[in-house]
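Supplementary Text 2. Reproducibility record for the structural model of the 246-residue chain.

All settings were left at their defaults, and a single model was retained for analysis rather than an ensemble. We include the record here because the model underlies the residue-level annotations in Supplementary Table 4.
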Amino acid sequence: MTSRVTLVTGGTGGIGTAICKRLHDAGHRVATNYRDEARGRDWQARMKADGYDIALVQGDVASAEQCDTMIRQLETDLGPVEILVNNAGITRDTTFHKMTAQQWQEVIDTNLNSVFNVTRQVIEGMRERKWGRIVQISSINGQKGQYGQANYAAAKAGMHGFTISLAQENARFGITVNTVSPGYIGTDMVMAVPEQVREKIIAQIPTGRLGTPEEIAYAVGFFLSEEAGWITGANLSANGGQYMGW
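Retained model, structure tokens:
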């Protein structure tokens, strides 16, 4: 297997960490971004203690200017980015009639505009080299919507619209672009929800349990393989059967 330079945005979170580990295990040279240096270095130290050498590069994916600097630094350190996983995301949940412009904009900037900001910096190189893999981490709530998440659902739905357009534009250049849409995953954020609320969520999942970050990482790894070169513009729902659409 060819070792590729890989960037996973938002890699220090629960799903991001699992993706970084899986791609490192597959032999790739993996990097992720950070905004808070102390937290980023602490995460990196914990990864190293577990045997994972993950590079860190500073940059807020909501900022086009910082993404330009971030990618330049990464490519100086490791080489051209060949695999990109757009995983960074935040929530600012509230019903729409109470939502502020700031709550809307922060989610759109981090979850959707970031996909443009980062991908724009690497796409031309992928086209020149005639190879690339890009995966967006969307959400079940981008497919079905969710009460109190108009901003989040809009951003996550937009990610797949981006996927299918970019896939069409770049297929002849050996670049695949796909989406993974996780359901409810047992990350720290979900496990922090009150148990009675969590039980109601699980009751709606046909498999009867939350997913694991490792299961989402497996789905991402599938799209990144050489054997998946004929699969582009696809969305893989990984939600335990909670939402089944075409």
